[in-house]
Design brief:
heterodimer; A: about 450 residues; alpha+beta; nine-stranded mixed sheet; about 15% strand; B: alpha+beta; 13 strands; about 60% helix
């Protein structure tokens, strides 16, 4: 084997120029694949982060309460016993928190906007606060400085609210200003509350423009809800990958405790209002979802991104395969005499085949490795540069205001291996042509 | 001349002698050209379809809105739900100035906004009917209606129990419970035949207010000058009812919304199941569809509930005939709705022919008056009554939810909702102020004056919550008719501009920038169509990037093949140089060869691409979801190509080919005549 390796390497080095060209092409494609993968992984990680901190737990135990059949209030009544069950009977549980969910208008002196409200208990929200960062004042106030005023822990006091930079900018408010929240209940009642902005956080893509956080007790007052109600429980597990399975277990557990469960629909709760309002039952029903269900309306982004990556890489590789085949065909022709000699002194057909394939595989391996390293470096540079996404629609797709790439080792290794194998495969036809040569014919060829 | 002829001959000869290389390089070129032609044609077609459907339904060729706007105007999609695009107060002046511009054909005033409407509750409807019967002296009929009232009261008792679980005010819940219980007791109805008034009053004053109002409907409206709108947007089609007459206030519902949101629940489900079956699903195999049928069957009450004593027997006997069995109406209806693949078509037809006529198929009927409620910017609730004149849709966008959730309204109703006064009201108010003296204004009025909203305050009908310190409801008693001139001036939020020559929209927007004294800014239709419209830009960006990368790699590969081909021909080139060929000749020969190959491959590729598009144009690409319906401007896209796409594809491939030949050509020119003499090896 060692000898084949040396011959292949020698050939590659001898045809330095064309080896270099082919390697450049393979390298570009590998780097591109790594970048596209890291983009997809970046979006996916933004999604997981946003989903599991801002809008959902690993498993969400929420539901609807209907006073009359046409209602659909996202409320869970009599929360105490339910919380106890979740805390005691969830396998692999890390912790459970609960939040209220609402939809309201935020009014400042100069502007107003709609937003999803989360009524939180600050003491439970260490994970949320840990994943969000205070925004520098210049991000939302014209001529603001680099200071990051605000304190998320102040959310434990009544009459406070935490906004995102985009919202603060739009409302023209800064930390310390007062905004009015106006909520409409399904019955048509309207209540307002004046809240002091205690923190303005950095945007985290499109999801952040729809969410604001305020103390739970204020939400209860806003909607005039009883103390023992909540919007839903967010159950966090030690291992997020268990979510689907544990949800199944919890369904059984809760049904066993006499709760009525809604049929499983893998969609976020706000997609369900219409269906729930159209059903005839009244009272309380629970609805269990995983974090993926709650962001399922964003999943198409990942699908689209991966489809585009796949098609692009497939097309590129088809072109490269043609190029490699072409090069090797010429190489076989140039080296006909050499092959003849090798065959004459006893080399088998199979070994000739391996020799040519090895040449392509070495070329592929070196090129993909270099390409992957370059791709990784470019990704690191892009991340370090914190490039702002210029087009709003693109921001919506990437779920972030800056381009964030995440190079995953596993995916990169797979890319390198797969591309190297494909490089080898594209050499199969010319290699077979070489192997088919009769020693006599090969020796006779003078050209 | 001879030189050219010789060069061409040489190039052709080499092409033939290097068949394999040329086949490979050629196939890359064919593929590349095809990709560019298909990709750009598809994208152009999508953009053209969308432009066509969007500009001729809502946006016009450009939209103009206040320069002080906080958000960029967006007329579709999620961002349009909560945007602040400022106000154009002097719409008359702006419209006049814009109309004077040479390319402008029409300027249509607009205001996009959101309101809610509470569908009429069942109790309201029954009480109204009861009163009518009493008035007509039909006491037998009235006695039958009282059963209906009691049935509703029983439901209300359950609702009361449910609210107790979440309410913060147990005393109030208990008080309401007593009222409902009273109505349920037989003693309450004693003497109804002799003196119905007292009982009716109790029902109206005590029971009706407890009943939580009917279903909440979100009404996203586009207020405009209806007459002008229909003239300017030719995709607009009336479906039911009539157009809002000149000078009348009114609302037109989008047909899509009407069918999807306002229709009876059972009928809606039937329609949805029909659509699924038409798409090829079957109830027996599709689990989702099966669940849907079950759900529909459980909704049977929403039909049965509406039948009165006269209609009931007719429907029952019909159902008995259909099902071939007898039983209580609830069971019959539920069995009837538990449709299967074999009987779906028949039952669908039967439902619409023999059941639907007895029920209110739509919660809101054409000709009804509905109350729209909305909030002004500073938090005042405003409500206005408006008549529903009919339903409409936009041709091509009938099945798009994105386009179908906007309803058409007149500007006068909008202004009443928005909280801006008419000239008349302003006069009236200043008269009142002069009379009462400014100091005597209510606290709420002061608040209103502070925010620049001075509408009359009728009084707070709603219960104030603990935190309710700002909201005051005002009910605008806007008249049913108005002077058409009011539409031509006054407050609007934005304006659609229809151009004579839409290709010069850029020019119009440029010119608008120079008219800063109007205080407005303009955007093109694509920006105005919001996030969805911008997706086209993103797709285009992705496509161009992909084309760029593909050609970059193709360039390397073609270059490589060419270099190798050149290396093989070094002796030949050396010979040519030895017999007197100049470097420039060699260069020209090489380039000519590539050009010839490229022309052949490019033509083939463009032809293939055009063929693919032509084929797609015949069969059509179906839109699989709502966003695609919107992008395609209809249920399917029939792409076309134009010469531009072909030329673009050809030009790119020619450029790439020539660039990739530069290096091998240079290698060729550097060959010294002497190598020819050395021979091979």
């Amino acid at each position: 084997m060692g000898i084949f390796f040396r011959i292949a390497l020698r050939n590659l080095l001898q045809a330095r120029r064309r080896s270099l060209f082919l390697m450049t092409a393979v390298g570009i494609v590998t780097a591109l694949l790594v970048l596209l993968n890291s983009l997809s992984a970046g979006v996916s990680s933004n999604m997981v982060k946003a989903a599991t901190t801002v809008s959902a737990g690993h498993i969400n135990v929420a539901g609807f309460h209907k006073t009359k059949p046409s209602d659909s209030s996202p409320i869970v009544t009599n929360m105490g016993p339910l919380k106890k069950i979740l805390e005691e009977e969830t396998p692999g549980l890390d912790y459970v928190i609960d939040r209220h969910r609402g939809w309201a208008k935020i009014v400042s002196e100069t502007a107003s906007m709609q937003a999803g409200l989360y009524g939180i208990e600050a003491s439970q929200e260490a994970a949320l606060f840990g994943s969000l960062q205070l925004a520098a004042e210049r991000e939302y106030v014209e001529g603001g400085g680099d200071a990051t005023p605000g304190d998320v822990l102040a959310l434990s006091e009544s009459g406070t609210v935490m906004l995102f930079a985009g919202q603060a900018k739009r409302l023209g408010v800064r930390v310390g200003d007062v905004v009015t929240i106006r909520a409409e209940s399904p019955g048509g009642r309207t209540n307002t509350a004046d809240l002091r902005v205690v923190a303005v956080m950095r945007d985290i893509g499109l999801l952040s423009s729809w969410s604001a956080f305020m103390p739970k007790q204020d939400v209860l007052k806003l909607y005039q809800l009883a103390e023992n109600t909540t919007g839903g429980f967010m159950v966090y597990l030690k291992d997020i990958d268990d979510a689907q399975e544990v949800m199944g277990t919890l369904r059984g557990v809760l049904a066993g405790h006499g709760y009525t469960l809604m049929d499983y629909r893998p969609e976020p709760f706000f997609f369900k209002f219409e269906q729930v309002a159209g059903e005839e039952w009244t009272g309380q029903r629970l609805d269990l979802t995983t974090w993926q269900d709650e962001v399922s309306f964003l999943m198409w982004i990942l699908t689209a991104l991966d489809t585009v990556s796949f098609s692009l890489i497939a097309i590129l590789f088809a072109i490269i395969a043609i190029g490699i085949a072409n090069t090797l065909i010429i190489s076989v022709r140039e080296r006909t005499r050499e092959i003849g000699t090798l065959r004459a002194i006893g080399m088998g057909r199979r070994q000739v085949l391996v020799m040519f394939l090895l040449e392509a595989v070495i070329l592929g391996a070196v090129a993909t490795l270099v390409g992957a390293v370059v791709g990784g470096l470019v990704a690191a540079l892009v991340n370090a540069a914190e490039i702002e996404v210029p087009v709003f629609a693109l921001r919506a797709i990437l779920l972030s205001d800056v381009i964030r790439l995440k190079v995953e080792v596993g995916r990169t290794v797979i890319s390198v291996v797969v591309l190297t194998v494909f490089t080898g495969l594209s050499a199969l036809w010319p290699a077979m042509r070489g192997a088919r040569l009769q020693p006599v014919e090969a020796l006779q060829s003078i050209e | 001349m001879d030189r050219v002829k010789m060069l061409v001959l040489l190039a052709l000869r080499t092409m033939v002698s290097h068949r394999v290389k040329n086949a490979i390089v050629g196939s890359i070129m064919v593929f590349g050209t095809m990709l560019v032609v298909v990709g750009t044609s598809l994208l152009d077609s999508v953009e053209a379809s969308m432009r066509e459907s969007v500009t001729s339904s809502v946006t016009g060729h450009a939209q103009v809105f206040s320069a002080q706007a906080k958000d960029a105007l967006s007329m579709f999609g999620p961002m349009s739900m909560s945007q602040d695009v400022g106000e154009i107060e002097n719409s008359g002046d702006v419209a006049r100035r814009l109309s004077q511009m040479e390319n402008v054909e029409a300027v249509v005033p607009m205001a996009l906004g959101n309101a809610v409407s509470f569908g009429k509750g069942e109790l309201d409807r029954v009480l109204f009917e009861l009163r009518e019967l009493v008035r007509a002296g039909d006491l037998d009929g009235a006695a039958r209606k009282k059963d209906h009232v009691q049935a509703i009261a029983r439901l209300m008792l359950q609702e009361n129990k449910n609210s107790a679980e979440i309410s913060t005010d147990p005393e109030k819940i208990e008080e309401e419970r007593q009222i409902i219980l009273k109505v349920l007791m037989p003693e309450f109805w004693v003497g109804f035949e002799r003196n119905p008034t007292e009982i009716l009053d109790f029902l109206d004053m005590k029971l009706a207010p407890i009943s939580t109002e009917g279903r909440l409907i979100y009404v996203r409206y586009l207020a405009t000058d209806p007459g002008q709108f229909t003239g300017a947007f030719d995709r607009f089609r009336m479906v039911d009812g009539e157009m809002i007459p000149q000078g009348k206030r009114g609302l037109l519902f989008s047909k899509r919304f009407f069918e999807r949101q306002v229709k009876n629940k059972v009928a809606r489900e039937l329609d949805a199941i029909k659509t699924e079956i038409e798409r090829g699903s079957t109830i027996s195999e599709d689990e989702v569809l099966k669940n849907r049928v079950d759900r529909m069957a459980r909704l049977s009450a929403s039909v049965v509930y509406q039948l009165d004593a006269v209609e009931m027997p007719q429907v029952v006997s019909g159902l008995e005939r259909e099902l071939g069995k007898t039983g209580p109406v609830e069971t019959l209806m539920e069995d009837f709705l538990r449709v299967e693949d074999s009987n779906f078509a028949r039952r669908y037809a039967y439902f619409y022919a023999s059941v639907a006529p007895f029920i209110d198929l739509y919660d809101i009927k054409v000709g009804d008056e509905i109350v729209l409620q909305s909030f002004t910017k500073s938090g005042y609730a405003k409500s206005v009554k408006v008549k529903v004149w009919g339903t409409f849709n936009f041709e091509g966008l009938e099945s798009s939810d994105l386009a179908g959730n906007t309803h058409l309204m007149d500007l006068v109703t909008f202004r009443a909702l928005y909280g801006k006064m008419t000239a008349e009201q302003r006069d009236e108010l200043s008269a009142i102020k002069a009379e009462a003296g400014v100091k005597a204004v209510l606290a709420e009025d002061a608040e209103a004056a502070l925010f620049g909203e001075e509408a009359e305050i009728e009084g707070d009908r709603r219960e104030a919550g603990e935190l309710q310190d700002l909201v005051v409801e005002t009910s605008e008693e806007a008249g049913d008719t108005y002077d058409v001139a009011e539409l031509k001036d006054g407050l609007v939020l934005h304006m659609a501009v229809i151009l004579r020559d839409p290709t010069r929209a850029g020019e119009f927007l440029e010119a608008l920038k120079g008219m800063s004294e109007l205080g407005v800014q303009g955007i093109d239709w694509q920006a105005a169509s919001g996030l969805v419209g911008q997706f086209i830009l993103v797709i285009r960006l992705v496509l161009y990037t992909a084309i760029f990368v593909i050609f970059l790699v193709a360039l390397v590969i073609i270059n490589n093949s060419m270099v190798m081909a050149t290396m093989e021909r070094i002796p030949e080139i050396g010979t040519m140089r030895a017999i007197g060929a100049q470097k420039s000749t060699i260069m020209l020969m090489t380039l000519l060869e590539t050009t010839a190959l490229c022309l052949g491959a490019g033509t083939l590729g463009a032809g293939l691409g055009a063929g693919v598009i032509a084929w797609l144009g015949v069969v059509g690409i179906p839109a699989s979801n709502d966003v695609m319906v919107f992008l395609f401007g209809g249920p399917a896209l029939h792409p076309t190509f134009d010469l531009g796409n072909l030329i673009f594809g050809g030009a790119i491939i020619l450029f790439v080919s020539l660039v990739s030949t530069m290096y091998p050509a240079m290698v060729a020119t550097r060959v010294q005549p002497v190598v020819a003499m050395r021979g091979k090896d």
